Predict the 3D structure of the following.
Amino acid sequence: MNEGITESETVRDVVIVGSGVAGLSAAVYAARADLEPLVLEGPEPGGQLTLTTDVENYLGFPEGVGGMDLIQRGREQAERFGAEFTHGTVERATLEERPFELDLSSGDVLRTRALIVATGASARWVGATNEDELMGYGLSTCATCDGAFHRGDDVLVIGGGDSAMEEALFLAKFADSVTVVHRRDELRASEVMTRRALEHDDIEFRWNTELLEIHGSQEAGVTGATLVSHPDGRPTEKLDADLDVDQVEIGVGGIFYGVGHVPNTAFLENTAVDLDDDGQLLTLEGMTTETAVEGVFGAGDVMDPDYRQAVTAAGTGSMAALDAESWLDERTSQQEVSVVADVSASD
């Protein structure tokens, strides 16, 4: 990490907020374009991929690659071309004037001509005992990433919305059995997703039930779970209130959280960048990473609620860097034309 590169008087060509695979891909492309990008690492350097022990579906790694290893390789590649990295969290973005200003939690201010937002989306966790230790070791927030590791296993899916139903339906292709654990007695999912899950022969449901504890180790992976249930639903609330709940331990080989994601866009809420009701960054229509604010671009899970894959995040990262490069070139050309016009007018 380089020191002294967050001085407010320095104006960068490109600042990339986020150091996951989308931000790193953007950094590689921006650095190769001689834009000398600054990559701002947030509270979770490397993003969600660092929680994945094995990545088997990233192009170019036929034997698979560790998530942390892939992130480290990406950072080294970006640094090789001249990208700089620094730690910091953006608390406020001022985008009404140029250059843009980013106020960091450290008190530093970054100024930049172009901004690439690659802050990702954080998966919601449920607060079960041992989830910190076992995330990435049989506990996952992404069935399409890790489902193939659970061929023949009995697995749990936690949640009752569309995300959970999508996870369950995908896992049913690999797992021996899939059990959806939901804290109420009806699903929040859309009608079509609910019907597909309820009618699937390999998907079962535990209603009015919540995950209390995950059993296993990083060496053995997930081996079981403790579930609590109550006929009126939301059993952990009943447990906290010292009410009687039913408690059972079951053996499972994997647990998947399907309780949604939270886009990391709080610092954009009071800007002209468009966000949807869930906080997802909205890009303009068409094949572009441009946003409603010229010079601000989105990449990765922060603007992609559908695919959320490492390879798609890397793709949008490269697109954002290319879009930023083109936008900066266009502004430079416009300024040169304006200078020539001013000189000609004064002659």
About this structure: The chain has eight helices and 17 strands. The two ends are 49 Å apart (CA to CA). Residues 1-6 have pLDDT under 50 and may be disordered. The longest helix spans residues 310-346.
